[in-house]
Specification:
754 residues, alpha+beta, Alpha-Beta Plaits, Calcium-transporting ATPase, cytoplasmic transduction domain A, Rossmann fold, 4 domains, seven-stranded mixed beta sheet, 47% helix, elongated
């Protein structure tokens, strides 16, 4: 909100079947006074804009959208059924993980109609029946009478199309498929071709219906995500349990999840041991063992025994809700290719109309051609020139890729991200929590002053609020030993260096050896101990009190089992890898050598940014990270990817996310992006190839009106079906791509030691 009258508004628009539909909605409202930042999302049926209510009321926006044949309702209200549109159930709407109040207040959704119950379906059946009657009349009635039967069939089918065409012309959009259809069918009647006119109207109605069904299937594949979270939960109230709406759960409450039930919230297991199937959320097919303290996702399935789970995130912030929101927002981040196609179609449409006019008038005037013949060819040219297939070629593929990614635990924030991922040439990995498990354990405690218990109590106190895996490991070790963390105040993180806080009036710091050296707190003996531990592949922190060393703690974090395999797969894709870490050179070298990856060590957050910038100077760089100190590097890369277990800061900064914490999903994400871009190129080739062929055959009189509309409809359906193939793509398939088939690689088993 910018002031009292200018606000951001959002509606649900129903009846949009293709990219041109979204363009029509955008065109209908963006010319209104006081309207800015118009964003129309086809698959999520969303219209969002900034509105100055002093110049235009929300009701006027709704009237403009309804005027061109679409349904519109404010966000959270009951969806409005458009003339001839499809409406999916409200509980399956993208963005269905909205605020609970919005859902509770919304009226009950009207059930979805079968295709033959919609206006589009009735138009197909009605125009088809009239066309059949007209053809039958030719067999038993005089030619003049059957002629009028075809005229009647044409007019009855053309009236709703013409109404939409003139409504859109009134708002400044004369070059639409509806207008081309109206001109072509009317022109065919004028030149005495009512049979072809009636057939064209029928085929157009069939094409509209198929587009609606295809769009519905594409939406369903994404919207199914919103239905993963159960509607109810078994809430513990004292010693009793009662069933409540899952969306009303609040952080800290305890719920019971019986075997076979879906988990109703993001939470942590309080008691019970069971396998949990997370495949609905992450795509991971093998159930994962969950014990007290383990995290569980909303929508996952408890398979074995009763679990008691403490709610850790509200319904609006759980994993499913975040996935749905990411996909919903992804449509706004359009790929450069998609933006180019939009700009091209705006020029292409008027050019085709101009070409049709020339075809109609130049041969008769300049060469004495037959007017009827050349007008007929011009009308066919108008139909074949419609850019519907071209306009939908990119968003259909992008939507399918986003859906497939979400089902496999790979989130990408829009078409621009997919296009960037397909062009990646270098991948930079953070070490801790990305290439390694991010769950180090304390291996050595060496005390210079005091006892081990005192040292761990101080270190655990300083790290008590930390999100870094090293700090969490120190806290876990103190807890296991029964040592209470010291009470601290004024704790703060020193990104890339350590954490410090105040304990009993003294400044305590859990510092990296480099920070301790900067503070002149490292003696020769301490330096030797640090080097010896680092030579064993361990990470060392030094505990300082007022810049005096009290002792050191060594930790080790093992590489993930699939890290070496991921690096090998990236090499097979022709992509170079590098590990960026703030850890010391000795530890970094030991891990990098085992993974077969290049490395840069002892990097501060700003140093990681510098390294990314160096790589990005002549390469396309993807950065993978999970911590707060990775956020600047994620933002600096061409493409930032957060590991799903990472911090909220990393997830929000990144362009994409990997939910399963599997390093092999990094090449999987690139494979999916490359497959999507191949699909887009195929779609554009199909759309433009068919246009080119039939434009030529139409000008030379080889094909006519009904072939023209059949070719246009066929191209749209082919492009949509080709895009839907991406729904069956398997990103985990580690096959070599064609462009790297001559590259030999060594396969490293996923469970091999590293």
């Amino acid at each position: 909100m910018t002031d009292g009258t200018t606000t951001q508004r959002e509606w649900r628009v129903t009846g949009m079947d293709c990219g041109s539909c979204a363009a029509k909605v955008r065109g209908a409202v963006e010319g209104l006074p006081g309207v800015a930042d118009v964003d129309v999302a086809l698959m999520s049926e969303r219209l969002r804009l900034t509105l100055d209510s002093r110049e235009t009321s929300p009701e006027r926006v709704e009237k403009a959208v309804r005027g061109i044949g679409f349904g519109i309702a404010p966000k959270g209200a009951k969806a409005e059924r458009p003339p001839g549109g499809f409406i999916l159930p409200e509980d399956a709407v993208i963005g269905g993980a909205q605020e609970a109040s919005a859902q509770n207040d919304a009226p009950e959704e009207t059930p979805e109609l079968a295709w033959y119950q919609t206006a589009k379906g009735r138009l197909v059946l009605g125009s088809g029946a009239l066309l059949a009657v007209a053809w039958a009349s030719r067999l038993v009635l005089p030619a003049e009478t059957s002629h009028w039967a075809f005229v009647l069939a044409t007019l009855l089918g053309l009236i709703p199309v013409a109404r939409r065409a003139f409504a859109m012309a009134r708002v400044g959009m004369p070059f639409t498929i509806e207008m081309l259809m109206t001109i072509a069918a009317s022109g065919a009647l004028v030149i005495g071709e009512p049979e072809e006119a009636a057939l064209v109207v029928f085929l157009f109605a069939v094409g509209e219906l198929l587009e609606g069904v295809s769009a519905g299937k594409a939406r369903n594949s994404i919207r199914a995500l919103a239905g993963l979270v159960p509607k109810t939960a078994r809430l513990e109230v004292g010693r009793q349990t009662r069933e409540v709406a899952a969306e009303t759960l609040s952080v800290g409450q305890i719920v019971q999840v019986r075997p076979g039930d879906r988990v109703p919230c993001d939470g942590a297991v309080v008691s019970g041991v069971s396998g949990v199937d997370e495949s609905p959320v992450t795509g991971e097919s093998v159930p994962r063992l969950k014990e007290p303290g383990a995290e569980v996702f909303a929508g996952s399935i408890n398979t074995e025994a009763l679990l008691r789970v403490r709610v850790t995130k509200a319904a609006a912030d759980n994993t499913i809700a975040r996935i749905v929101r990411l996909i919903e927002e992804a449509e706004s981040a359009r790929a450069p290719t998609e933006r180019f196609i939009d700009r091209f179609s705006r020029v292409y449409m008027p050019a085709v109309v101009g070409m049709a006019v020339l075809v109609a008038v130049v041969p008769p005037l300049a060469f004495g051609g037959d007017w009827s013949e050349w007008v007929y060819r011009a009308l066919a040219l108008l139909l074949i020139g419609c850019p519907c297939a071209l306009v939908i070629s990119v968003p259909a593929a992008i939507t399918s890729a986003l859906s497939t990614g979400a089902r496999n635990g790979l989130l990408m924030k829009g078409g621009a991200v997919i296009e960037a991922a397909a062009r990646v040439t270098h991948v930079a990995f953070d070490k801790t929590g990305t290439l390694t498990h991010g769950k180090p354990r304390v291996t050595d405690v060496q005390v210079l002053d005091g006892s081990e218990a005192d040292l761990l109590a101080l270190a655990a106190g300083v790290e008590s609020g930390a999100s870094h895996p090293l700090g969490q490991a120190i806290c876990r070790d103190a807890e296991v030993r029964g040592i209470d963390a010291a009470a601290v105040t004024d704790a703060r993180a020193l990104p890339g260096k350590g954490v410090e806080a105040v304990i009993a009036g003294a400044t305590l710091c859990v510092a990296s050896p480099r920070l301790a050296a900067e503070r002149d707190a490292v003696s020769e003996g301490l330096r030797g101990a640090v080097e010896a531990l680092e030579g064993q592949g361990k990470t060392v922190v030094i505990v300082l009190r007022d810049d005096v060393a009290l002792g050191l703690i060594a930790l080790r974090d093992e590489p993930r089992g699939d890290a070496a395999e991921a690096v090998a797969q990236l090499q097979a894709l022709g992509i170079s890898s590098v590990m960026l870490t703030g850890d010391n050179w000795r530890t970094a070298s030991a891990i990098a050598e085992g993974l077969g990856i290049d490395h840069r060590a002892e990097l501060m957050p700003e140093d990681k940014v510098t390294e990314i910038q160096k790589l990005a100077a002549d390469s396309r760089v993807m950065m993978i990270g999970d911590g707060i100190n990775d956020a600047p590097a994620l933002a600096a890369a061409h493409l930032g990817v957060a590991m799903g277990s990472g911090t909220d800061v990393a997830l929000e900064t990144a362009d994409a996310a990997i939910l399963r914490d599997r390093v092999t999903d990094v090449p999987g994400q690139i494979r999916l992006a490359r497959a999507a871009m191949r699909n887009i190129r195929q779609n554009i080739a199909i759309a433009l190839g068919l246009k080119a062929v039939f434009l030529v055959t139409t000008v030379f009189g080889i094909t006519g009106l009904w072939i023209a509309i059949l070719a246009d409809t066929g191209a749209t359906v082919l492009v949509t079906l080709n895009a839907l193939r991406l729904l069956f793509f398997r990103p985990s398939n580690a096959r070599k791509l064609a462009d790297t088939s001559n590259r030999s690689t060594t396969h490293v088993p996923q469970d091999s030691p590293v």
